[in-house]
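Subject: sequence -> structure tokens, single chain

Hey, anyone have a minute? Need the predicted structure for the following. Not urgent.
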Amino acid sequence: MLSFENRLTKSKDFEKVFKEGETFHSDFLVVNVLKEEKGKRFGFIVSKKVSLKATVRNKIKRRLREQVRLIIPLIQEDLTAIIIAKKEIVGKSSEEIKQELKNIFL
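Reply:
Had a minute. Here:
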């Protein structure tokens, strides 16, 4: 489980990343990154466009959180990131998600 010190929870923080951060696109993720000195913090967005079922959306969020937790020690710099799932993430394995996150952050 991703610790709460590594989670982005406040709407002000989300707005700041959207306004000032850089955006990266991949096959099934969109990542907004803002380099800050507040540690490594991550927010996750899985909209109803991905799936109308809350159970599917929550499962995707849990997978994303777990894969981020595994790669946090490998990330060198402090940053704040928002990870947005696209429709294509449905059906992807945890290993595919982890590899995509590694490609973006490392």
